[in-house]
């Protein structure tokens, strides 16, 4: 009788685990959002990377950190970068990745935007506050890459 209860408990536990697992994937809790915005440049990936380095070196209110790179070849990597921007008393973090679309063109994809002081932001362009963060990113980062081409 005791063995039968253990078997029933194990079967029920497996069923509950399966239902939770299916619900997790069905609800897309771990889904990856598409970029909020994409910016194209007439630069190679190396030129784009050098521009980002130069902008960060010239401005004490802007810094960046490469967080990851993916790809199968050293010449064809996607770089994942966090860009930190200090504007007055506010600190912003922008998650981007950049890659090349061909030998003469590259693109930056804005994936996330956050206001660290006021504690808002996210990965979807679905509110006025997010649009304001995107505008700050464009005015203080993207514009400078375009301006210096």
SSE order and pairing:
Elements: H1 2-26, E1 37-41, H2 45-58, E2 62-70, E3 78-87, E4 90-102, E5 105-115, E6 120-122, H3 128-147
Antiparallel strand pairs: 1-5, 2-3, 3-4, 4-5, 5-6
Keywords:
single chain; alpha+beta; 2 domains; six-stranded antiparallel sheet; 6 strands; 40% helix
What can you see in these coordinates?
The chain is of the alpha+beta class. It has 2 domains: 1-31; 37-147, Alpha-D-Glucose-1,6-Bisphosphate, Chain A, domain 4 (2-Layer Sandwich). It is 40% helix and 34% strand. The protein has 3 helices and 6 strands, in the order H-E-H-E-E-E-E-E-H. The protein has helices at 2-26, 45-58, 128-147; strands spanning 37-41, 62-70, 78-87, 90-102, 105-115, 120-122. Strands 1, 2, 3, 4, 5 and 6 form a 6-stranded antiparallel beta sheet that branches. A hairpin with a 7-residue loop joins strand 2 and strand 3 (78-87). It is elongated, with a radius of gyration of 22 Å.
